[in-house]
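Researcher: Here's a chain I'd like modeled. Treat it as a single chain, no partners, no ligands.
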Amino acid sequence: MNEYPLVTIVCLCYNQAPYVSEAIDSVQQQTWKNIQLIIVDDASTDNSQEVITKRCALLNQVECIFLDTNRGNCRAFNLALQKAKGEFVIDLAADDILEPERVAAGVAYFLLHPGAGAQFSDAKIINKDGVFIRHHSDIIPHDSVPQGDVYVDLIQRYFICSPTLMFRKRVFDQLNGYDEALFYEDFDFLIRSSRTECFGYLPEPLVSKRVHSTQMSRKQRGWRSQQQWSTFLICEKILKLNRSSKEQQALRARLVYEWKHAMARLNFPLAWSYLKLFWQNRSLQYPD
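Model: Modeled as a single isolated chain. Structure tokens:
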């Protein structure tokens, strides 16, 4: 591995005019200087493109992609990924902020752990005005965070703050990037990558994750959200990826959890689909 490897940061923007300059600045302020920054505006309807154009006119080695139609996070990211030259990749939402040591800490981890395919960390949770709310570790304590083979843990529960993730680019290449059939990317890519890759955790809060009413994650549990069907499709993938009764039990718990949420939102077609998948999972037998 190169002692000073290139790191590609893909900054995805959709109607984030109030925040995107701060995200770009956080990349420019990294202590690690060997960085390729690719900014993708996914046909914003606010003045995000104007903000990006003005900000990037002052910067070198920044590539901007302005899409004329909204492609969604997964497709927009994959378009940028085609231009990524780094040995490592960070997916940066335009409303989040990288701490100055984020890239350097990630590279240092990978240099010490050549077998790891992904690395994540603690995070600061901030509000729309950038005011600190809490740490991610206040909810998910450091000593409860799994490392290494985290496939089963990811099926069962949430513990990775997705904006803190950094991957080896080969992982994206091997998995053909994000699944463009889905409305959100993180759970699916975590599941698929953790099937074969080891994950490492750093307890330092290396990213500030902004929470506000307009972000996509807030809409995931909304009434008849399209993201709910994406979660179902991911559960179907898990069924195909599973290899043991332990993994089968983890999926069983996940399906019950998702079925309850579908019922609570009166999404009966989705609830019925989860019920059928539950029985399909239960009917399988594994050697162990």
